[in-house]
Amino acid sequence: MSTPGDTPYRLTLRHPSGVTDIVVGAGALADAADELAAWVGGRTLFVVTTPRVLALHGTVLDGVRRAAARSVTLEVEDGEGAKGLASAERLWREMLAAGGKRDSRVIALGGGSCGDLAGFVAGCFLRGVGVVQVPTTLLAQVDASIGGKTAIDLPGAKNSVGLFHHPALVVADTALLETLPTGELRSGLVEVVKMAFLLQPQLLTRVERGLPRLLAGEPEALAPVVAEAAAAKIAVVESDPAEQGSRRLLNFGHTLGHAIEASLDYRGLRHGEAVAYGILFALRLGLRRGLPAGQAERLRALLGRFELPALPELSPDQLLAAARRDKKARESGLVWVVPVALGEGRSVADVSESEVRRELDHFLGDPWAGFAADAAGSSGRPPL
Ligand SMILES: NC(=O)c1ccc[n+]([C@@H]2O[C@H](COP(=O)([O-])OP(=O)(O)OC[C@H]3O[C@@H](n4cnc5c(N)ncnc54)[C@H](O)[C@@H]3O)[C@@H](O)[C@H]2O)c1
């Protein structure tokens, strides 16, 4: 990473298929302009984006488009609905009809849904064409655009068809986040906090101190946070490219988070908001395995400041059934990422169903209770 305080920051991810640079900061697109122009130079460029992002930020790629032999915009719907087989097939057909070739280029300009779809489409088209990710949500800048995982959803089975296809470059320009609604910023910040707690505790302090400016979407406040979170993700992806070991720690909060999302049919809570509740639940499992109460309370208190929407009414049976259907479940059962200390988590498959049910009963009664504050007899629920 370049000197702290310098923006844009430039990070490098080494992976089995090569090297991906990640440029982060307010002005990252301008910084990477020459590189992008050279990458598309004289070729057909397909820009995969969504109507909202096109309306808000469609002009940011004008210079890159001019450097291409020709540029074709491929619009997909905003949000998770884009990640279906029908969208993928339509894009492949349009790319073929537009004369797309093995050396054509794809740029994904959008949030994680658009990036996952575009990465998948690029990875399969003619057995793989080059893709650059230009993530426009906080979640996509710190997480989805880094690490090469791409996927589409089948009905009721999120991310169930996909492949690893690393981008040639990731350009995470935090100036693009100024238009992001607070709920989307909050959702992305949950993923930051997830990584900070288990992988980079000093980032937790930065989020605690800067939360109001971060939730307001200030690009200068966000830039070092995105860079540190991206660095944490890079370190774990480099150490475990195929997600066989430590990379699973990134699933902290996701076993229950995904089950909540699926039980709600992906409506009502954003991904990061559901993961926040999943983290609260995982903290309970952690407390039973040695996680110091003060550390659990610190994370609970931070999440309490996020002003999350309330958890809709759900039953343990609904959640367990959804968790078992999730692709992260194994044939042998559910896998949980359990925090055992600040900076240390474990992926465990031996949490008994009776323990999960018992904890779910308490959790669904009051997700915020059951932490250190309860010792004094009070609920940990954040003030409304
Ligand atoms: N590949 C991975 O490793 C990985 C990791 C984490 C999450 N994901 C995936 O990421 C997806 C979620 O991504 P997301 O949270 O970015 O959601 P998203 O892509 O659905 O975007 C959320 C909303 O924000 C809008 N938006 C995007 N950029 C904007 C901007 N700059 N200003 C205003 N509005 C903007 C979009 O139009 C959309 O309505 C999920 O499908 C998840 O599975 C993938």
Descriptors:
single chain; 384 residues; alpha/beta; seven-stranded mixed β-sheet; two-stranded antiparallel ribbon; binds nicotinamide-adenine-dinucleotide
Topology:
Blueprint: E1 9-15, E2 18-25, H1 28-31, H2 33-40, E3 44-49, H3 51-57, H4 62-67, E4 70-75, H5 85-97, E5 105-110, H6 112-124, E6 130-135, H7 138-144, E7 149-154, E8 157-164, E9 169-173, H8 182-199, H9 201-215, H10 219-239, H11 254-263, H12 271-287, H13 293-304, H14 316-325, E10 336-341, E11 344-348, H15 353-365
Parallel strand pairs: 2-9, 3-4, 3-5, 5-6, 6-9
Antiparallel strand pairs: 1-2, 7-8, 10-11
Helix pairs in contact: 5-6, 6-7, 7-8, 7-10, 8-9, 8-10, 8-12, 9-10, 11-12, 11-14, 12-13, 12-15
Bound molecules: nicotinamide-adenine-dinucleotide.
Nicotinamide-adenine-dinucleotide (NAD) binds at residues 50, 52-53, 56, 78-80, 83, 110-114, 116, 136-137, 139-140, 143-144, 147, 149, 159, 176-177, 179-180, 184, 187, 271.
Explain what the structure shows:
A hairpin with a 2-residue loop joins strand 7 (149-154) and strand 8. It contains 15 helices and eleven strands. The strands form three sheets. A seven-stranded mixed β-sheet has the order 1-2-9-6-5-3-4. With 384 residues, it is α/β, with parallel strands linked by helices. Helix 6 packs across helix 7 (138-144) and helix 8 (182-199) packs parallel to helix 12 (271-287). It binds nicotinamide-adenine-dinucleotide.
Q: Outline of this structure?
A:
With 384 residues, the protein is α/β, with parallel strands linked by helices. The chain contains 15 helices and eleven strands.
